[in-house]
Write a structure and sequence with these properties.
nitrogen fixation; 40% helix; single chain; NifX/NifY_domain; Nitrogen fixation protein NifX; Di-Nase_FeMo-co_biosynth; DiNase_FeMo-co_biosyn_sf; five-stranded mixed beta sheet; 134 residues; alpha/beta; Nucleotidyltransferase, domain 5; two-stranded antiparallel sheet
Length: 134
């Protein structure tokens, strides 16, 4: 699965969803995590709140989880409607430690929230692969 991290430096989760200048995108599996890339947001002057949320959703729309320091209620609702689970972590949490935690959860018995997300992701992949769940 792909996981996004709201970051200002590519090393720590240190940004609010609506103000994050970029997202570090990792591919995470039971065997480990690897950085796919840093997706930077274009600077748009005088962008309203809805525009900020929308531009960030476009950048992370292929992700299953998004780790952030903070997220507003309306942004959280929009993110979850896109089938992305927002995960709040303490400011400055190292991304590599968060990736390690996800890998450990995948290797063991994932907590209920992660099991639900993985189940939904598997169903979506099954539907797109064989076309029988249209």
């Amino acid at each position: 699965m792909k996981v996004a991290f709201a970051t200002e430096d590519g090393i720590r989760v240190n940004a609010h969803f609506g103000q994050s200048p970029m997202f570090a995108i990792y591919k995470v599996t039971k065997s480990g995590g690897e950085l796919i890339g840093l997706r930077k947001l274009p600077t748009i002057l005088n962008q309203d709140e809805a525009g900020k949320i929308e531009s960030r959703l476009e950048v992370v729309e292929d992700c299953t989880l998004i780790f952030i320091m903070q997220i507003g209620a309306s942004a959280a609702a929009r993110v979850t409607r896109h089938k992305i689970m927002p995960v709040k972590v303490p400011p400055g949490s190292p991304i590599d430690e968060q990736v390690k935690r996800i890998v450990e959860m995948l290797q063991g018995k994932p907590p209920m929230w992660l099991a639900k997300v993985l189940h939904a992701e598997n169903e979506a992949e099954g539907a797109s692969v064989d076309g029988s769940h249209s």
